[in-house]
């Protein structure tokens, strides 16, 4: 019941704030804030409830489940369930929802009601994706979050918003259709061997199929998730969408939507197709490592603040892909950690970019320079999150990347050393970002006012979480390995056999 | 006398349509006022719809050799009647409201609906042709109805020539099939072909190919699609909605019945040709739609592509295929009616000035993309309905179009039709471009819309029209979220066909 509530609070809140804006302009943002606030409280309450349970090694993994008939003709049910990883991703979603409402507070003036409607419905779709355990339902939410996101970019975005929004939609929707075909193929393969037509995750696990069928179906899923994550040859929508989106849109895109792709790899690709994922893993890991380096190098070449941050996402998510396909407890824990830490630190960098853009109306770093003297608080936060992004020990990103490399080394030492090069590259782009924007003389004569109370609260809380993740990562790691122990133990044992 | 009574009951939906056409004609002859005419038309349609539930207890009734009133036929008759109802309501203000003298329009609409009803119920070449001609001839007049304006007239003549041509092909095809098999009943053709050593010879095969060609013209499938954009653009918007839905839907329902009952799906050449047609329809329809700047033309090409999608499900030829086609067609009806409904509501229409050609006659419908700039901000509800329709055409969740596409893909994947399925995926990805383009134009900031030079005073929808559009949009979303209700109906519909 509470799982359904997690989705419907956001759905109802979205509709309410849309309508509220017509009755009383200005009410929309308060309603939106209240909605994500309730969502966050609920999610954290769930976490506290289950934290003790999750720490136990024998814990099976599912914290809550709900199932209701939906389309009996196809064996489709409204099946939601939550385990540790869904839980922390829902918490992340709710928190970033809060952040994105806060950072749109003054940025969005026109048609605010419709904006918050889209924002909350994107979040609802993402929460649905993290909770759905029926493949049809999963696909339903997967597609559902695209439309409001499209509107957010297309209406409130920056200069090239039409191009960026259509590109985003076509990439994700097109690959999503491939996934739909793959889902149907999987379901009918299962139907032929068992006579049961179902879209249920648990029943489709361990479907018997020939290796080539398994590989083809897995590729259908993989491409959809690879576009969303993004994995390198499928990433080209990302810099445009992130750059052109309004601040809240960039925060949600980087923090939440990219995670749905990684989550899909973790939840569906490997468990449903263990064998195929096993022999596809080297390719996927090579792509992940390529993404790590490629993103880092391209980030260094950017002059647009948001575009730079967007490319660092490619790099960081490459680590997540490496962690998932290395598939051992360390790398998986690292991958989950990296997802959370990246969501917070990149989200914060986009918030900073949004604050700069709101005041200066530009994102071009060549026009900044020397902002430290004008906006010391903002500059300090910029430095903090830039070094968080480069993976300084003591911050969440370091824990994630370190664990991933440790796990990866056991799977492939070559790729591990390649990926480690990214640490150098990330130092280059992160410090370049700080130097170009904040250091030096204020030659352009910017006169800007520093952070307001609302902005400080947003950024400080994000900084606190980054530090907490870096200094005491155990609660997140407790949640993560459950996925590694439960269904797809096959792969883990394979890997162990390989290692021995 | 006893035996004819159940037949009449079974035929009552069709009979009521015919009767109401006559009643409307007589009423118009004695008291020439648009209000009672539209009322009688709508009443006739409602009666016909309610009478669908009378024969439902009878599982499947063969009424003479010509017509079979099974659940499949009843479902599609219901769909046609409802669509005609919507079109009639949309026509009223568009053609001048209370000041108009357009009684003939409603008679023609009723006759066209009757033709469609006969088509979906026919089980014999004779009734096939009868229904087809009834539908087509009414449509010639409907398309060219504003006969003092250039475009509708042009469109009417184009349609007349091509429809006549395709009917000719169809007749020749029927003759060839008859020449080989000596029967015109679908079921008999089917049983003859299932005999072990029987198959279509060259005659019969050529006949079947010609029939498919003739039907292909009506369905606007790709090598036979040339007329579609011009006719769609030229015809008055509500009539375009009628062509897009009733005419095509009835034809497709008939084709599916023919293929299943007459065993035409066993011919590999024909199914191969059809899958080729499906793939090219999807790709060509979607690609050409990218180049258009006119909403009606975009929707025309989009409907070519949608019919291609339908064929993918169609080609599976099993119970799931029938369900998929029926669901997709229902979604397509709702969507197309809604989309053209919005165009109708935005257009000034042809109000009564049918003697001088200038007074109150709009040159064209509001069908340019520019006419819709910023619609989101000054007509949010209308734009919302249009957006919902376009997203449904694109197959986005929460709409019927999504479930329809899902159904079609399920049927295609189940039958392992990989190439058409992949074409569908590629085609609908391309399709997103032009649907999003319309949506993006509607979202454009309001200030741009005002400075737009082609902006002209647009009509405001009447209350009935608004209610109708809202009902369509609600239906679209309701059945997109809870499709199980419609699916239950469909499952009952299809069991007896194959």
How would you portray this structure in words?
The complex is a heterodimer of chains A (500) and B (498). Chain A has 500 residues and is mostly helical. Chain A has one domain (1-498). Chain A contains 21 helices and two strands. Chain A has helices spanning 2-23, 27-55, 84-103, 112-131, 135-144, 146-156, 161-194, 201-204, 211-228, 237-244, 247-272, 274-300, 305-326, 329-360, 376-390, 396-411, 413-438, 453-471, 474-479, 481-485, 489-499; strands at 62-71, 76-83. A two-stranded antiparallel sheet of chain A has the order 1-2. In chain A, β1 (62-71) and β2 form a beta hairpin. The termini of chain A are far apart. Chain B has one domain. With 498 residues, chain B is mostly helical. In chain B, strands 1-2 form a two-stranded antiparallel ribbon. The chains are: A mainly alpha (500), B mainly alpha (498). At the A-B interface, β1, α5, α6 and α7 of A face α16, α17 and α20 of B. Chain A: Residues 132-421 form the NADH:quinone oxidoreductase/Mrp antiporter transmembrane domain. Chain A: It is found in: Endomembrane system; Membrane. Chain A: It is a multi-pass membrane protein. Chain A: GO terms for molecular function: NADH dehydrogenase (ubiquinone) activity; NADH dehydrogenase activity; ubiquinone binding.
């Amino acid at each position: 019941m509470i799982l359904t509530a997690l989705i419907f609070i956001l759905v109802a809140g979205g509709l309410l704030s849309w309508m509220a804006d017509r009755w009383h302009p200005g009410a929309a943002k308060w309603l939106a804030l209240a909605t994500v606030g309730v969502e966050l409280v609920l999610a954290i309450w769930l976490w506290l409830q289950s934290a003790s349970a999750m720490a136990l090694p024998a814990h099976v993994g599912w914290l809550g489940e709900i199932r209701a008939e939906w389309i009996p003709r196809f064996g489709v049910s409204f099946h939601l369930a939550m385990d540790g990883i869904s839980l922390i991703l829902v918490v992340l979603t709710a928190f970033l929802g809060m952040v994105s409402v806060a950072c749109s507070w003054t940025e969005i003036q026109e048609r605010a009601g419709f904006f918050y409607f889209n924002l909350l419905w994107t979040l609802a779709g993402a929460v649905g994706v993290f909770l759905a355990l029926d493949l049809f339902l999963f696909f339903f939410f997967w597609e559902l979050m695209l439309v409001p996101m499209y509107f957010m970019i297309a209406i409130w975005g920056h200069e090239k918003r039409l191009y960026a929004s259509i590109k985003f939609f076509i990439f994700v929707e097109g690959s999503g259709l491939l996934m739909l075909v793959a889902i149907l193929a999987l379901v009918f393969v299962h139907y032929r061997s068992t006579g049961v037509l179902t879209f249920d995750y648990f029943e489709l696990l361990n479907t018997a199929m020939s290796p080539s069928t398994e590989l083809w179906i897995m590729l259908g899923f993989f491409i959809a998730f690879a576009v969303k994550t993004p994995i390198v040859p499928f990433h080209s929508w990302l810099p445009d969408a992130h750059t052109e989106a309004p601040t809240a849109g960039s925060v949600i895109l980087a923090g939440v939507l990219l995670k749905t792709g990684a989550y899909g790899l973790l939840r569906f690709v490997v468990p449903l197709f263990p064998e195929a994922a096993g022999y596809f893993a080297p390719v996927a890991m090579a792509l992940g490592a390529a993404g790590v380096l490629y993103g880092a190098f391209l980030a260094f070449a950017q002059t647009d603040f948001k575009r730079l941050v967007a490319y660092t996402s490619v790099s960081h998510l490459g680590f997540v892909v490496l962690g998932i396909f290395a598939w051992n407890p360390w790398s998986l824990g690292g991958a989950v950690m990296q997802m959370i830490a990246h969501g917070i630190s990149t989200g914060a960098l986009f918030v900073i970019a949004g604050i700069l853009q709101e005041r200066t109306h530009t994102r071009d770093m060549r026009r900044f320079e020397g902002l430290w003297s004008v906006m010391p608080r903002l500059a300090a936060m910029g430095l903090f999150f830039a070094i968080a992004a480069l993976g300084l020990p003591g911050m969440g990103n370091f824990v994630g990347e370190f664990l991933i490399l440790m796990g990866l080394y056991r799977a492939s030492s070559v790729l591990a050393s390649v990926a480690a090069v990214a640490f150098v590259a990330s130092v280059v782009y992160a410090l370049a970002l700080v130097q170009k924007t904040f250091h030096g003389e204020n030659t352009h004569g910017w006169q800007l006012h520093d952070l307001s109370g609302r902005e400080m609260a947003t950024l400080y809380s994000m900084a606190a979480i980054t530090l907490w993740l870096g200094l005491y990562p155990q609660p997140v790691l407790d949640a993560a390995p459950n996925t590694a122990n439960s269904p797809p133990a096959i792969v883990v044992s394979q890997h162990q056999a390989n290692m021995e | 006398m006893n035996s004819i009574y159940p037949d009449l009951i079974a035929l009552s939906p069709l009979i009521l349509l015919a009767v109401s056409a006559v009643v409307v004609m007589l009423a118009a002859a004695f008291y020439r006022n648009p209000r009672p005419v539209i009322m009688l038309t709508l009443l006739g349609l409602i009666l016909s719809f309610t009478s669908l539930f009378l024969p439902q207890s009878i599982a499947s009734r063969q009424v003479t050799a010509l017509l079979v009133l099974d659940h499949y036929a009843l479902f599609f008759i219901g769909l046609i009647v409802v669509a005609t109802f919507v079109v009639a309501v949309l026509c009223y203000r568009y053609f001048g409201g209370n000041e108009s003298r357009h009684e003939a329009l409603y008679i023609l609409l009723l006759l066209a609906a009757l033709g469609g009803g006969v088509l979906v119920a026919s089980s014999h070449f004779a009734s096939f042709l009868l229904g087809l001609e009834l539908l087509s001839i009414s449509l010639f007049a409907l398309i060219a109805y504003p006969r003092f304006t250039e475009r509708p007239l042009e469109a009417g003549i184009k349609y007349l020539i091509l429809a006549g041509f395709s009917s000719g092909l169809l007749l020749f095809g029927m003759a060839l099939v008859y020449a080989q098999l000596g029967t015109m009943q679908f079921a008999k053709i089917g049983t003859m072909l299932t005999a072990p050593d029987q198959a279509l010879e060259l005659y019969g095969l050529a006949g079947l190919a010609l029939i498919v060609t003739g039907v292909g013209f009506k369905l606007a499938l790709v090598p036979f699609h040339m007329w579609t954009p011009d006719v769609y653009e030229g015809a008055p918007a509500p009539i375009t909605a009628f062509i897009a839905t009733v005419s095509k839907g009835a034809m497709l329902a008939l084709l599916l019945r023919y293929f299943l009952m007459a065993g035409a799906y066993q011919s590999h050449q024909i199914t191969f040709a059809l899958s080729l047609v499906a793939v090219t329809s999807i790709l060509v329809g979607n690609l050409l739609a990218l180049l258009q700047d006119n909403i009606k033309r975009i929707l025309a090409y989009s409907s070519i592509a949608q019919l291609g999608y339908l064929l993918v499900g169609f080609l599976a030829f099993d119970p799931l295929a029938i369900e998929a086609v029926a669901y997709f067609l229902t979604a397509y009806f709702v969507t197309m009616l809604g989309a053209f409904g919005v165009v109708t509501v935005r257009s000034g229409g042809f109000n009564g000035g049918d003697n001088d050609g200038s007074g109150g006659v709009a040159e064209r419908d509001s069908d340019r993309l520019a006419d819709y700039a910023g619609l989101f901000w000054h007509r949010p509800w209308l734009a919302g309905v249009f957006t919902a329709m376009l997203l449904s055409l694109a197959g986005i969740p929460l709409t019927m179009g999504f479930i329809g596409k899902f159904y079609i893909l399920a049927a295609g994947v189940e039958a392992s039709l990989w190439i058409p399925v992949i074409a569908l995926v590629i085609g609908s990805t391309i399709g997103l471009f032009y649907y999003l383009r319309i949506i993006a134009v509607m979202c454009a900031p309001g200030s741009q819309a005002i400075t737009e030079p082609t902006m002209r005073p647009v009509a405001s929808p009447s209350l009935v029209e608004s209610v109708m559009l809202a009902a369509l949009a609600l239906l679209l979303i309701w059945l997109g979220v809870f499709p199980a209700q419609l699916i239950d109906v469909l499952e009952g519909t299809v069991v007896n066909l194959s």
